[in-house]
Design brief:
The structure is a homodimer of 373-residue chains.
Chain A: H1 12-15, H2 26-33, E1 39-40, H3 52-63, H4 74-84, E2 91-94, H5 96-108, E3 114-118, H6 123-131, E4 135-139, H7 148-158, E5 162-166, H8 178-186, E6 193-197, E7 219-224, E8 237-240, H9 243-248, H10 260-271, H11 273-296, E9 300-301, E10 308-312, H12 317-329, E11 332-333, E12 345-349, H13 353-372
Parallel strand pairs in A: 1-11, 3-4, 3-5, 5-6, 6-7
Antiparallel strand pairs in A: 2-8, 7-8, 9-10, 10-12
Helix pairs in contact in A: 3-10, 4-10, 5-6, 11-13, 12-13
Chain lengths: 373, 373
Amino acid sequence: MQQRVPAPRQAKLCADLPSTVPFVGPEAQERARAAQFRARIGANESVFGPSPKAIAAMRQAAADCWMYCDPENHDLKVAIAAHHGVKPENVLVGEGIDGMFGYSVRLFIDPGEVVATSRGAYPTFNFHVTGYGGRLVFADYVNDREDPQSLLALAAAQKARMIYFANPDNPMASWWSASDVQAFIDRLPADTVLCLDEAYGDFAPEGVLPRLDANNPQVLRFRTFSKAYGMAGARIGYILGEPHVIKSFDKIRNHFGVTRIAQAGALAAIADQAYLREVVGKVAVAKARIDEIAASNGLEALPSAANFVAIDCRRDGAFAKRVLSGLIARGVFVRMPGVAPLDRCIRVSAGTPADLDIFAAALPEALAEAGRA
Amino acid sequence: MQQRVPAPRQAKLCADLPSTVPFVGPEAQERARAAQFRARIGANESVFGPSPKAIAAMRQAAADCWMYCDPENHDLKVAIAAHHGVKPENVLVGEGIDGMFGYSVRLFIDPGEVVATSRGAYPTFNFHVTGYGGRLVFADYVNDREDPQSLLALAAAQKARMIYFANPDNPMASWWSASDVQAFIDRLPADTVLCLDEAYGDFAPEGVLPRLDANNPQVLRFRTFSKAYGMAGARIGYILGEPHVIKSFDKIRNHFGVTRIAQAGALAAIADQAYLREVVGKVAVAKARIDEIAASNGLEALPSAANFVAIDCRRDGAFAKRVLSGLIARGVFVRMPGVAPLDRCIRVSAGTPADLDIFAAALPEALAEAGRA
């Protein structure tokens, strides 16, 4: 790759960024293995797929995709607002939560300002903070949960202008009650934004998601069609927030960035709550099966309010890593937390019965292999 | 919209940004009119739609969209590279040219640095420059073309670190020869990036697109599936560039930002070059028809190397604006350039024969009305 002229200088914030990426996709692993995965239960996708009505709407929209999307996302915002009992002005529709994390950091964080998160929490959020020159500070998980007390203390001590908190959590699937989260919100330092990631909120039992306060400019609640609605590859999600704050995203968002197909699919998906309940039921069955598989292998499945289960392999991160590698070698795509002590676990998404049969067959072999190493 | 607590302070670059948006979508205009447009020929979309093979691939992918996309866009990059005779390392796939303009400005431009473009050229590029704190400077169009000499002189005088240049141009559909563009490239100041927008390149006659130099780190060539490939609403495009520069986008891009459906559609679309040629042929027929309609109304259609025609209304911008309003009132969605003297024109996209029948019927009425005002 010979360069005849020097490459133009990059912006200061970008020049020194690491070129690491938040996640390697399963497709890259498949290319490296030269074989397809037999069970794809590593990215907390919904193996149960989108609502048939959403699929039909997307198929219909495929032929219409010569048209740009409605950049105001009008119809979808109206439907989302009605679903949550808020106004369309409380809703920002965007190209998935990842993209909207980028917008949020860009909107609020100046280079050098502090953003607080938990060590081991969602790495793509950190990718955006680092990318915009924010300075990340980390609280620890306490008993496998992101810890509001620790985050508030850290934010106060470090003058954090943004806090990331997921409820239910990823990668541990743990959760706090709505009243605990509300107490967290009520104690936010002035001038601090809470990015409340509720991507897995649709799976949570009653009493986990706090009541919506559509007038609090300090809270951005992130929701998605990628998880329970089964549309991860369509890239569409939304933020619920205070209208002035929501409006200010117009200053920077990619107005035509959502696809017309995703708009159509999401509109049909949110209208089909019966299907959503069906998926949540199937996920519960799958999680119970994962619990059984873990127990029958002498492992401990952690309680889960999401669509995946963290399985405690009861040794250190190196051991869990060997178990993970053994599963991947057997065609089972799973992932694991990146930092201790969370990394004693592997993370298994709710699969179909067939997926979990494959997992159940592979796990004892992977464990035996990991124990011998 | 009462706020009980003050909104957190926004980042310096964002706090003062105007909340104007680059384009109002036709759907917003339809809501304001409380009526659908009868002819949608204002956004340079391809009314001929995507290849039937691309539609079939997207329909197939709709059911698979529970999976995130391949974040490396591997298969599509291989296909694009083969199509252009370059390596996959020369290709960045992203969520449409608009999104990739944002990445490009972010990657190269520090706040306060200068970016040169032409007065009246693509506004969404400017939206991103302003959004990242760049300082825009403007050359004038010369004879309805963006002018390389003027842009080079301006860039040298103002020490611009980035230049925007579209070939063929939007909104005038004018163009330069490949050798003129190559001379422009060869004279770029050191440390300056050329954003060469070739969104309409698939419509250009032979001899307009310069030969690809895959080793020049100063040139980013923007291509899209939104125009000739008919997939505007699927949000997928690509940059052809030098491998190190292309790789550096990994530092900031939204890795999972392209939809799985768009990846599948684009892969099928690029494989169907016969369909692409058919569309280009239909566009040529439509442009000839637009020329006729203009001439029969005493107007002048400017020569076009794109999929739209700028029609010179032969008076000032206020007159052209009235013509535009008259067309919109008659259900014909068209747009017009934003600045003088380009704004003596209206801009009409290549429509179906039915679209152009509606335009042909509405134009004399709109002209008469505009003349009476």
